[in-house]
Specification:
By secondary structure, the chain is mostly beta strands. The chain is built from no helices and 13 strands. Strands 1-3-6-5 form a four-stranded antiparallel β-sheet, with no helix packed on it. The protein has a four-stranded mixed β-sheet with strand order 2-8-7-4, with no helix packed on it. 16% of the residues are buried.
């Protein structure tokens, strides 16, 4: 005696070729996966792919693109996510196989940015001196308020002042 559900049904598998990946904002990475399983007359299988944002990642559109055997992750903005591939029994709604990929998208380190000012010497006039700064990373001009902010210290007194550039967004 045998169960008809077992006829022509092989064990289903869902597997990534790795389980964790870390990239920097602005980068892309592709990870292979495998979904297999044979159905029978009483059991239909579907293959599924989904992702869940677990932290950050402001630009969620297009962060993950799926092909039949690869997921490409686009480092749109810093944060964390999980990508799951699965095989589901359509008749029961039960996932018979699944695997998860954990993704971390790190901020770009701004400490190596080239920072310059048109002027670096000012006459003391009792007012705060807040020169405009140019900030570049790998020949890319960064945008004040979007990519970085500036903090000025001791800029109202005569002597030396300090401007500190702090990354925001992807930096």
């Amino acid at each position: 005696f045998f169960d008809m559900d077992d006829v022509l049904f092989e064990k289903a598998e869902a597997e990534f070729d790795r389980h964790e990946v870390s990239i920097t904002a602005g980068e892309d990475v592709s990870v292979k996966y495998n979904l297999t399983g044979n159905a029978n007359l009483h059991r239909q299988l579907i293959y599924g792919r989904e992702y869940t944002i677990t932290e950050g990642i402001a630009d969620r559109d297009g962060v993950a693109e799926f092909s039949p055997d690869t997921v490409t992750i686009h480092g749109t903005s810093p944060g964390k996510m999980q990508i799951t591939v699965f095989v589901e029994d359509l008749s029961s709604g039960e996932r018979v196989a699944e695997d998860t990929l954990k993704v971390t998208i790190d901020s770009i380190d701004i400490s190596s940015a080239e920072v310059s000012a048109e002027e670096d010497i000012f006459l003391y006039d009792g007012e705060a001196q807040t020169p405009e700064l140019s900030v570049k990373m790998d020949d890319k001009e960064l945008k004040l308020g979007q990519d970085y902010i500036i903090y000025y210290y001791n800029s109202t007194k005569s002597g030396e002042a300090e401007a500190v550039v702090t990354g925001t967004g992807n930096y």
